[in-house]
Amino acid sequence: MSSSASGSLTTPERLFLESAQCLEGVESLSAFRDWFADYRQNHRFDVIRRGLEQLDGWHFQKDNGNLVHHTGRFFSIEGLDVRTNFGHVHHWMQPIINQPEIGILGFLCQRIKGVLHFLVQAKMEPGNVNGPQISPTVQATHSNYTQAHGGKQVPYLCWFLDRTRARCLVDQLQSEQGARFLAKRNRNMIVQVCENEPIKVEEGFFWLTLGQLFALLQEDNLVNMDSRTVLSCTRFTGDGFTAKYSRRTTDATAFGADILRSFQSRDREGLHDMYALTSWLTHMKTTYSLQVQRVPLNTVHDWFVEDGMIRHQKNRFFRVIGVEVAIDNREVSGWHQPLIESTKGGIICFLCQKHHDILHFLVQARVEPGNFDRLEMAPTIQLTPGNYDADHPEHLPPFTALLLESEGIQTRYDALQSEEGGRFYQDQNRYQVLELDPGRDLPLPPNYTWMTLRQMKEFIRFNNFFNIEARGLLSCLRPELPTCSPRLT
Amino acid sequence: MSSSASGSLTTPERLFLESAQCLEGVESLSAFRDWFADYRQNHRFDVIRRGLEQLDGWHFQKDNGNLVHHTGRFFSIEGLDVRTNFGHVHHWMQPIINQPEIGILGFLCQRIKGVLHFLVQAKMEPGNVNGPQISPTVQATHSNYTQAHGGKQVPYLCWFLDRTRARCLVDQLQSEQGARFLAKRNRNMIVQVCENEPIKVEEGFFWLTLGQLFALLQEDNLVNMDSRTVLSCTRFTGDGFTAKYSRRTTDATAFGADILRSFQSRDREGLHDMYALTSWLTHMKTTYSLQVQRVPLNTVHDWFVEDGMIRHQKNRFFRVIGVEVAIDNREVSGWHQPLIESTKGGIICFLCQKHHDILHFLVQARVEPGNFDRLEMAPTIQLTPGNYDADHPEHLPPFTALLLESEGIQTRYDALQSEEGGRFYQDQNRYQVLELDPGRDLPLPPNYTWMTLRQMKEFIRFNNFFNIEARGLLSCLRPELPTCSPRLT
Fold first, then answer.
1. Among residues A31, A209, A50, A206, which one has the least CA distance to residue A133?
2. In chain B, what are the domain boundaries?
3. Residues 6+ apart with CB under 8 A from A21
4. Residue B298 Cα distances to B94, B276, B302, angstroms
5. Taking CA A361 as the corner, what is the angle to CA A358 and CA A363, rounded to the nearest 5 degrees?
6. What chain B residue is nearest to A286 in terms of C-alpha separation?
7. Across the interface, do B465 and A461 touch by the CB < 8 Å criterion?
8. Closest chain B residue to A270 measured between Cα atoms?
9. What distance in Å separates the CA atoms of residue B199 and residue B176, rounded to the nearest whole number?
10. Which residues from chain B sit within 8 angstroms of residue A170, using beta carbons?
11. A261-289+344-474: CATH class
12. Is any Cβ of chain B less than 8 angstroms from the Cβ of A7?
C-alpha cells in the first residue's frame, strides 16, 4: 500500500472517528469479556520477590555499583546527578533506568465491515496488579525483536518492520516516565493493512473497535500503559476533514460532544493560538534549566542498597526490587529482573474548563530529570502525596486543593490506571479529568496554560512535547458524535 | 498586547505575506544602500590573526587540553568521540564548540503605514568576509544579555525579554551547525510592537519590509546567517488563511508564484501527507544511530595543536584559529577569540521539482554529530568537495553529479551566503535552488523524500527538525502574489 495521499484513501482522522463511534465491532464487548476472563484463568503466572543480589543474570558492577544484565542488554539502573531551577529542590541525586534502545509499541489495524478494528493482545507482565491487561498487538523492546533472550518470534512484528506492506496511521517517537527513565523513547505505531489481507487471529489476540477500547478505558487497570500511549496519538480532526456535529446543552452526557468540539475547533477559536502556545513553551524552555549527569550508582547520596533492594533513606519516591517471574505464554518461560516499586497513591489529573464555549485543558510545563529536552507538557496535577513533607504543605503543587472541592467541579473521568508492568511493580495511579464551571477565574502560575484538545494533539504529532502521564490520560477521552452510532456495513 | 487570538489581530501569515509583496517600504532600497555604504565606510575594524596560545583570556586547560575562556563563559573547544552507522565513516573524533547557553536572535517588527517592517541592524562580526552584514535587531548570546563582558546594554532587548509588551509572531528554539556545535540552539524570535508605540531608530538600525529583505537575499553575503535562520520561521499560510492566487504558465518569472502555491498547498495535495512524512522521519531516526561522547581535546585522534591553531592531520574539515579584534561599535572595544576556519568551497543545494503541479523539495535525513536528536532534515546536497578523497568519488553524496548538469535543470537561486561571523572565519557557502523538469524520474536513496514548502514549514514550527543550512536556504525563497504589489496605505 502506498503512503501517498491519494484521494481514495480515507484519512486517518476519519477512520479513527468512525471507529470511536462503534461500540459494537465484529465481536461484542461481552464476547470480549468472556474471552478475556478465560484467558486470565488459563494463564498461570508467579512473581516471587527476590533480593537484587539473588537475580540470575543481573549483578552490581564492581567499579560503579550500577545494576546491569550480564549481556549488557535490556536496561540498567544507574545514578543521576540532577540540577534544575524548577520546583523546590534544586539539586539531588537518584537512581535512574537507562534503556537507550527504541522499542516498538504498535497496533495492527484493519477495516472490517467498513470499520477500523484494532488487534489487541492479552498480555501478562510481572508488575501487573491484576494479571493480564490489554496491550498493543506488538510491544517489543529492541532486545525483544532482535531476540536477545533467544525466545520465540514476536507475532505480527513483520507488519511494523516492513513499511511497504501497511499504511502507517501513526508512527512517532514518544517519551516514557521522565522521573524514572533517562531519555527513554518508544516508537508508537498504528498500521493499517488492506481489507483483503487475510490476518489470522493468533491465540491471545482479539479485534476491538476504538469505541470498544474507549469503553474498556473506563474500567480500572484493564488497558495497559503501552496501549494508552499509542492511542493518545490518534486524532479526530485534520487537514480537509471535520466531522459534522451540532451544539448541545451542557450536561454530563454531552461531555463526549464537547470533547469532539475541542478536537475540531479551529486554532483561532482557542484562548491562545499555536503561535502564542509555542512562544509560551519556548519561554518555559529558556526559563527553566536542567543539567543531568550520569554518575556511578554507588556515589548517589541518600540512596542505599539494603535488604536486597535500592531505596531512599526516607523510603520516598521509589524502590528498586528484584523478582523471579514464571509465565507460560511469554517468549521465554521464566526469568529474573529488577522492577521499580513507586510510592503508592499517585494522582494524575487534568482540569478542564470551557472558554468561548470550547473545552480547554490546563497544561503544565514540567521539568523531569529524564526528559529528552528538559521539560515536557504534563497534566495539571501530577502528584504522589506520600513523597511530600507533611510539615511543608506549601510545597504541594498548585491546584492540589481543587482535588478536595466538589462545588462547581464535575468529575468527567475517574479510574485507576497501571503503569508499565514490565518495569513497574504494581504501580497504579488515579487518573482524573475534572471540569470547572465556566466563568470561574483560576489564577495561573507562569508554567501553566490553557489549550484545546486540537492544539494538544498538534503538539503530540511532533514527538516529546507531552509526557506519558498526560498522553495516557488524553487517550481516555472519547469524542462523541451526537448522532446515532454508525453500524458495521 | 494580548497573545490571545482575538479576531481583530491580523494573522502572522497574512502580515508576512503582505510584507513580502512590498518591495518599497517607508525607506527605499536605494536609501538603504546609501545608508549601508556609509555605515560600512565609517565603521573601522581590524582582525589580526594570532596564535591560540597568545589569546588574552583564553587558554588550553592543563588536564584535558580544552580551549576555554578564563571566566568559563562564552564557549569552549572540546573533544568529541562520534559513532554512527550513517555515511561511510562510522567512528571518528573531532573538536567541537560547546556553547550550552541559549541566545536570542530576534527581529523587532512594527506595522508602518499598514505594512510589517523589520528593524534590521548593520553588524560587524570578526569573521565576516566583507565588513558589516544585515543582522536581526537583537543578536545576543546569553553572556551578552546578562553582560558577562561588562559592555553596553543591548538595544531593543527589553522587547524580547518582556513578553507582555509585544506580540510574538515567531518564538522557537532552532539548531545551529551540527558539524561544529554540540547541541547548540538559539531562540529565534519575531516580535510585533503596536503601531502607536514610538520606536526610536538607533544608529546602525534601519526599517525594511520582508520584500526588501528578499531582494537583499539575492545578493552575496549581505544578509547574515542569524537573519536567515529567523526569517526561515516565517510562514505564508495557516489556519483560516489562504491568499488568493491564480495559476500561471511555467516560466522563470513565475517561480515566486510556484513558491506561494507550494506554501499554500493542502497537506493532501502533496506527494506524501504529513502522516507519511512523520513516519518516514521516525523510521530514519530508528534506522540511524548516533553515539557521541565528550572527551578531552588532548585525546582526540588525528587532530593537533600546531602553529598556534588546531588542525586535522590532512588539513581537512576545519581549523580553529585565534584572532585579535578591534571594532568601534561593539559592546566592548576590542577582544581576542578563537574562530573556526572551514575548508572553502561548500555547496548547499535544494533540488526541487513539480509533482501534481506543486513544487516539492528533495529533503535529506542527515546525521551530524552535534545534532540534538541524532538527525535533522537537510538540503538535498550539503557538500564541501575538499573534504572528500579524490581517490574515492563513490564517497561523494548522492545527486552531486546533477550540479554539473544544465540540461533539464533551471537555476532558481544562486548566491554566496556567509555563516555566522562571530564563530566562523570568512566562511561562505554557495546556496543554490535547482528546479528539475517535471516528469524526470529521480531514484531516491531511503534517506531522501519530497516535501512541499508547507510541509517543511510545518516541521520548522516544532523546533530542531530542519538544520540551519536548510533553513538558511529556505529563507531566500520569496512567495509572489501574481497580482500587482500592494503599496503602503
1. A206
2. 261-289+344-474
3. A211, A480, A481, A485, A486
4. 11, 45, 11
5. 145
6. B102
7. no
8. B5
9. 31
10. 275
11. alpha beta
12. yes
A373–chain B Cβ distance below 8 A for any pair: yes
Which of B170, B239, B268 is opposite residue A267, by nearest beta carbon?
B239
Smallest CA–CA distance, residue A102 to chain B, in Å, is 7
Chain B CB within 8 Å of residue A5 CB? yes
- How deeply is B419 buried, as exposed, middle or buried, from its count of CB atoms within 10 A (0-12, 13-18, 19+)? buried
By C-alpha distance, which of B102, B124, B264 is closest to B174? B102
Distance, in angstroms, between B269 CA and closest chain A CA?
A: 7
Which chain A residues touch B279 with a CB distance below 8 Å?
A: 3, 163, 168, 171
Place of cell 470551557: A354
Distance of alpha carbon B352 from alpha carbon A464, whole angstroms:
30
- Does residue B187 belong to the interface with chain A, where contact is any CB pair within 8 Å? yes
Residue B268 to residue A170, Cβ atoms within 8 A: no
- Å from A417 to nearest chain B CA? 28
> For every one of its 489 residues, what pLDDT tens digit does chain B have, with 9 covering 90 and above?
334 333 457 899 999 999 999 999 999 999 999 999 999 998 878 899 999 999 999 999 999 999 999 998 889 999 999 999 999 999 999 999 999 889 999 999 999 999 999 999 999 999 999 999 999 999 988 766 666 555 568 999 999 998 888 999 999 999 999 999 998 999 999 999 999 999 999 999 999 999 999 999 999 999 999 999 999 999 998 665 666 654 444 454 589 999 999 999 999 899 999 999 999 999 999 999 999 999 999 999 999 999 999 999 999 999 999 999 987 665 567 899 999 999 999 999 999 999 999 999 999 999 999 998 999 999 999 999 888 888 888 889 999 999 988 899 999 999 999 999 999 999 999 999 999 999 899 999 999 999 999 999 999 999 889 999 999 999 999 998 866 555 666
Nearest CA in chain B to A1: B276
* Closest residue in chain A to residue B458, using alpha carbons only: A462
Nearest CA to CA, how far is B271 from chain A (Å)? Answer: 6
User: How near does any CA of chain A get to the CA of B16, in Å?
Assistant: 14
CB atoms within 10 A of CB B96: 26
* pLDDT tens string A197-234: 999 999 999 999 999 999 999 999 999 999 999 999 99
Nearest C-alpha in B relative to A161: B283
Mean pLDDT of A107-126: 96
Q: Is A130 helix (H, G, I), strand (E, B) or coil?
A: coil
Mutate: best of A169, A237, A273, partner B, most B CBs <10 A: A273
pLDDT at A4 over 50: no
Judged by a CB distance cut-off of 8 A, whether residue B11 touches chain A is: yes
CA distances from A117 to A17, A22, A228 (A): 12, 10, 16
Please, are residues A247 and A186 in contact by the beta-carbon 8 Å criterion? Answer: no
R_g of chain B computed on alpha carbons: 22
Q: How, if at all, do strands A103-112 and A185-193 pair?
A: parallel
Pairwise CA distance, residues B280 & B285, whole Å: 9
Query: Nearest-CA distance from A238 to chain B in Å?
Result: 9
Half-sphere exposure of A207 (CA within 13 A, CB side): 18
Using an 8 Å CB-CB cutoff, list chain B residues near A168: 275-276, 279
Mean per-residue pLDDT, A115-125: 96
- In the numeric block, which cell numbers belong to residue B70? 578564563
